[in-house]
Automatic annotation (TrEMBL):
Domain of life: Bacteria
GO biological process assignments: bacterial-type flagellum-dependent swarming motility
Residue stretches making up the Flagellar basal-body/hook protein C-terminal domain: 88-132
Subcellular location: Bacterial flagellum basal body
Natural source organism: Acetomicrobium mobile (strain ATCC BAA-54 / DSM 13181 / JCM 12221 / NGA) (Anaerobaculum mobile)
Keywords noted in UniProt: Bacterial flagellum, Cell projection, Cilium, Flagellum
Protein known as: Flagellar basal-body rod protein FlgC
Annotated TM spans: none
Entry GO terms, CC: bacterial-type flagellum basal body, rod
Keyword presence, Glycoprotein: no
């Protein structure tokens, strides 16, 4: 393992989890968006994580977001015949965003982000101690 591998791995995870938190905030911001440019209600977006490997010998080099997918769950149907987006039966298709799930995902992403920050801080302390030993 090279000297800065721990920072590279933690940094890749920090980036991936920050993107996940960005997606969660987009999902929460669009919880009531019934009309999008693509047509229909907003669809929940989720990241697909994948490990990053060093190409020559398949050493683990961190995590990354392979792609962002729209959640395939059906929209929530709410009876609101007065709503401008209501169908012929009076139902409005709302996004498939569950606020409780998004908040739970946000807690998971935040904790993972914090854990990787602790890895970075630990690496800094170790290197600082090593430098102090070398100086003496």
């Amino acid at each position: 393992m090279r000297l800065f591998d721990s920072l590279e791995i933690a940094g890749s995870s920090l980036t991936a989890h920050r993107l996940w938190m960005d997606l969660i905030s987009q999902n929460l911001a669009n919880v009531n968006t019934t009309r999008t440019p693509e047509g229909g209600p907003y669809k929940r977006r989720v990241p697909v994580f994948a490990e990053r490997l060093q190409s020559m010998n398949n050493d683990f080099k961190g995590v990354g977001v392979e792609r962002i997918e729209a959640d395939d769950l059906p929209p929530r149907m709410v009876y609101q015949p007065e709503h401008p987006d209501a169908d012929a039966q009076g139902y409005v298709a709302y996004p498939n965003v569950n606020v409780v799930r998004e908040m739970t995902d946000m807690m998971v992403a935040t904790r993972a982000y914090e854990a990787n920050l602790m890895v970075v801080e630990s690496a800094k302390e170790i290197w600082g101690s090593a430098i102090d030993v070398l100086r003496s």
